């Protein structure tokens, strides 16, 4: 089973036919080619940041005794993009006015679309953003599977 984030364009109603389905999963291509993966998904700011970090990693590899640190930096960049790439794409769309309409668990995209568009009275599981005082300065939700600590530790 896969989890799909359903995002709708600015000003669109729920179940709009222009909804975008993002599969929230690990991507091997993003692990191997993080900058290209981000560019393909139009996450330009994240791609620029990944390019800078990978450039730093490549520069560090060239120095004697720091090769392992540079390789670790390259691997870490790929892992972060592979694990959190869909969240980065969703955050980028959110900055452009898109809203997350639903989260659907389905076998594949076709099934997720069928579930999303055939719901009548009830809608798919809604994700209502809640902004607490501790989240006021944060622009996005927690990443890397970490939970927020708004209620204390």
Question: Can you lay out the helices and strands and say which pair or pack?
Answer:
Elements lengths: L1 E7 L11 E5 L3 H5 L1 H7 L3 H18 L5 H29 L3 E8 L2 H10 L35
Antiparallel strand pairs: 1-2, 1-3
Domain module count: 1
- Secondary structure tally, helices: 5
Beta strand %: 5-15%
The main β sheet shows up as: 3 strands, antiparallel
Q: Determine the fraction of residues in helical runs and give it as a percent range.
A: 40-55%
Topology, number of strands: 3
In angstroms, what separates the terminal alpha carbons? 32 Å
Task: Please state the structural category.
Answer: alpha+beta
- Could you give the order of strands across the largest sheet? 2-1-3
Outline: elongated
Question: What's the helix-strand series?
Answer: EEHHHHEH
In round numbers, the mean pLDDT is: 80
- Flag low-confidence runs: 130-138
Radius of gyration: 18 Å
Detailed description of the structure:
- The chain is of the alpha+beta class.
- It has one domain.
- Helix content is 45%, strand content 13%.
- The chain contains five helices and three strands, in the order ββααααβα.
- It has a three-stranded antiparallel β-sheet with strand order 2-1-3, sandwiched between helices.
- Helix 3 (44-61) runs antiparallel to helix 4.
- The radius of gyration is 18 Å and the shape is elongated.
Tags for this model:
DUF2628 domain-containing protein, single chain, alpha+beta, transmembrane, transmembrane helix, 153 residues, 3-stranded antiparallel beta sheet, 45% helix, elongated
């Amino acid at each position: 089973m896969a989890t799909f984030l359903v995002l709708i364009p600015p000003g669109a109603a729920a179940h709009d036919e222009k909804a975008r389905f993002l599969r929230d999963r690990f991507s091997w291509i993003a692990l191997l080619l993080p900058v290209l993966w981000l560019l393909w998904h139009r996450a330009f700011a994240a791609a620029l940041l990944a390019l800078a970090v990978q450039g730093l990693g490549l520069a560090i590899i060239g120095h004697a005794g720091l090769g392992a640190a540079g390789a670790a930096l390259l691997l870490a960049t790929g892992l972060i993009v592979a694990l959190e790439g869909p969240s980065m794409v969703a955050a980028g769309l959110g900055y452009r006015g898109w809203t997350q309409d639903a989260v659907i668990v389905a076998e594949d995209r076709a099934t997720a679309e069928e579930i999303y568009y055939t719901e009548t009275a009830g809608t798919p599981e809604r994700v209502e953003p809640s902004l607490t005082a501790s989240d006021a300065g944060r622009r996005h939700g927690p990443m890397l599977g970490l939970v927020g600590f708004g209620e204390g530790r």
